[in-house]
TrEMBL record:
One of its GO terms (molecular function) is RNA-directed DNA polymerase activity. This is Reverse transcriptase domain-containing protein. Keywords: Endonuclease, Hydrolase, Nuclease, Nucleotidyltransferase, RNA-directed DNA polymerase, Transferase. Pfam families: RT_RNaseH, RVT_1. SUPFAM superfamilies: DNA/RNA polymerases (SSF56672). The keyword Nucleotidyltransferase applies. Residues 288-383 form the Reverse transcriptase RNase H-like domain. It comes from Tanacetum coccineum. The lineage of its organism: Eukaryota, Viridiplantae, Streptophyta, Embryophyta, Tracheophyta.
Length: 397
């Protein structure tokens, strides 16, 4: 009905003035199936006048057994001091977690400020509340593979163990991190920073949840401060992720923004990501093009803008049909797709005329005097927008 949707290939195909157009999902799995082509990545956008903090860093190998896991140090450091810093890091290589097996747990009872502190997890239960077992939800192929791989590694390390006859069951929730891994709940977040003695926090260290910054006034003091912090970590068996550690840098990201000698400023990498994902610039009352699609169980819409004889995708909206909607005729499903788009993309419908390219008699159905109650309702809802309908055959090729 105008558009062919492929969930397997994460793409849609539709007619355009220059032939058949294809739009792929912006998300791509790590593995590309046979017969599929990976989209060519656009060259990185260079932001003039902005010096990235990445230009002031260099990566070194601390553990020769794991050369792929590097630690960042400041590029501006003198050569002789870099050597001292590298020796310090390598002599404390056991502070870092190079594999899951290295995370051998924090002691169940430690002292914070001279007082005992319990680090055990506890599930707060009420006798009047029955255990909850969530309905099983399946993960995507890539998320499921990542889950199985990490669970296997954590079980080998003795961090996880198999439990039968669960009373409480919750589905897995995978949150992708910037380094490609996934978040796993280890312990109460607010307790992580409490493992450090209060006499260090505020003096040569600042901590917020599980993000920590060692601050020093000189290079020599920095070596002492790093060693002191490492000793504290070692005393409670806390491990660091080498991929997230930076030493001897004058500026760097902390909790999102970039911390520099001159103050806090916007992180260029975040700005760059925003620029690359930004939508095309629109002219006032510019006509936007829309294609509709409907299948047995779902409806889809793609909104585009015309740029130099080509169509630039703006938004792709889709949803699964519910109960009674599954029995709608094909034409009514297309109208429902348009209504759904008008609700989801309201700001575009209010600011721009929308040209719907379809050979289906949608306009005739909406303007007919003999129409069902729901179509009459949809007609009133769509009537507030500037929408025109054109068939594919009316487009000049």
């Amino acid at each position: 009905m105008g558009i062919i949707v492929s969930m397997i290939y994460r793409a849609i195909k539709f007619y355009t003035p220059r032939g058949i157009g294809t739009i792929f999902s912006t998300y791509e799995p790590d593995k590309i199936g046979e017969g599929q082509k990976k989209l060519k990545e656009a060259p990185p956008t260079v932001m003039k006048g902005v010096l990235s903090y990445m230009d002031t860093e260099e990566k070194i190998v601390v553990n020769e057994k794991y050369p792929e896991q590097t630690v960042i140090i400041g590029k501006q450091l003198p050569t002789n001091f870099k050597k001292k810093l590298q020796d310090l890091l390598r002599s404390n290589a056991n502070v870092f977690a190079w594999t899951h097996a290295d995370m051998t747990r924090i002691p169940r009872a430690i002292k914070v400020g001279g007082k005992p502190f319990n680090t055990k997890h506890k599930l707060n239960e009420y006798k009047l509340i029955k255990p909850v077992k969530q309905k099983k939800r399946r993960l995507g192929l890539d998320s499921n593979e990542a889950t199985c791989k990490q669970v296997e590694e954590l079980m080998k390390a003795g961090i996880l163990r198999r439990v039968k006859n669960h009373l409480w069951i919750a589905n897995r929730v995978m949150v992708k991190k910037s380094n490609g891994g996934y978040h796993k709940i280890e312990m109460v977040e607010e307790d992580k920073a409490r493992h450090l003695s209060s006499d260090q926090i505020g003096q040569n260290l600042e901590a917020y949840v599980d993000d920590m910054v060692i601050k020093s006034t000189s290079e020599e003091d920095m070596l002492k401060d790093i060693q002191e912090t490492f000793d504290r970590f070692r005393s409670v068996n806390m491990k660091l992720n080498p991929k997230k550690c930076s030493f001897g840098v004058e500026e760097g990201p902390f909790l999102g923004p970039l911390i520099t000698k001159k103050g806090i400023r916007v992180n260029p990498s975040k700005v760059k990501a925003g620029v690359e994902k930004s939508l095309p610039f629109f002219k006032a009352r510019e006509v936007l093009v829309m294609y509709l699609a409907a299948s047995t169980e779902s409806i889809s819409v793609v909104l585009l803008a015309e740029r130099e004889e080509r169509q630039v995708p703006i938004y792709f909206v889709s949803r699964v049909l519910q109960r009674v909607e599954l029995n709608y005729p094909g034409l009514e499903k297309l109208i429902l797709a348009l209504v759904h788009a008008a609700r989801r993309l309201q700001r575009y419908f209010q600011a721009h005329p929308i040209r719907v390219l379809t050979n289906a008699p949608i306009k005739k159905t909406l303007t007919s005097l003999e129409k069902s109650g729901r179509i009459a309702k949809w007609t009133i809802e769509l009537g507030e927008h500037d929408i025109e309908f054109k068939g594919h055959d009316s487009i000049k090729k």
